[in-house]
């Protein structure tokens, strides 16, 4: 990655919902104060307003910050932006629609690229298309670098390092706790979900191209995948809905890479979302089936993106969560691991006999 650039970091899409929070976080961070950073987007006026709004929130004058005009439909502007910085933080989604041009310009200019995408089809497509070229130019391309995947991927790695023996299986359960005002998600997340479902069949083929021998990797003995998508988790006393898309693909790619590099036997990883009531996951299943069907047709896909609140029963909206909702909401990732102690690690002769539990709490 090139070292001598005008900026260390540029936040692209700073005027959007996620971009606004990234700018606020950087502006408040003592660590970020050590770096030269700027904001970029389609409108200089809107960028200036974002800086003024964030400045009012944190009690600082940000008017001296540099604002750069860059547009995903103007590749020359993206190239100019990438040449000015060591790292682009890209918050412009849905990434399957708008992300590739930014990645391409960063790769060609040897600029690191970090995005907040949870769209696995997009992330793996970028890896397939640009991995070799990125290695040649020294550009690091990092996707899923947010709540979408960071706690899970780091959590699995941490569990493996802390397990005194041989870890064979991990069950991850996500619990989300809204605050007093409830919670709703930003429309960008809904759009990403729709496009992910629309490309699901292509996604399967793409994953096979990326990891052609993944299904034939040696498996852990005496452990098997959960068969029922909906089950009762006794330790947490909640109903769990299997969600083996998204974060799981990130973990699988890491496991695959470690096996190819070090020969490590992949850990069997499964993830679920936990609910107090059985009715909620049942309702989500039927709703997701409906969204999947509608996402296959262009007209209905556009209708869902135009009316996200109507099509999601209020779960998603163009305005996203309010600041109070975002401040009060909490999440917990539970990790339940099973394996064998040191005595049985090299040649287990029966089911796992050792357990480890870890939790990750966050806002």
Automatic annotation (TrEMBL):
Superkingdom of origin organism: Eukaryota
Gene3D superfamilies: NAD(P)-binding Rossmann-like Domain
Similarity field: Belongs to the saccharopine dehydrogenase family.
InterPro entries: NAD(P)-bd_dom_sf, Saccharopine_DH-like_oxidrdct, Sacchrp_dh_NADP-bd
GO cellular component term of the entry, any: mitochondrion
Domain Saccharopine dehydrogenase NADP binding stretches: 9-142
Positions of transmembrane segments: 278-299
Cited Pfam families: Sacchrp_dh_NADP
Protein name per the record: Saccharopine dehydrogenase NADP binding domain-containing protein
GO terms classed as biological process: glycolipid biosynthetic process
Keywords, alphabetical: Membrane, Transmembrane, Transmembrane helix
PANTHER family per UniProt: SACCHAROPINE DEHYDROGENASE-LIKE OXIDOREDUCTASE
SUPFAM superfamilies hit by this protein: NAD(P)-binding Rossmann-fold domains
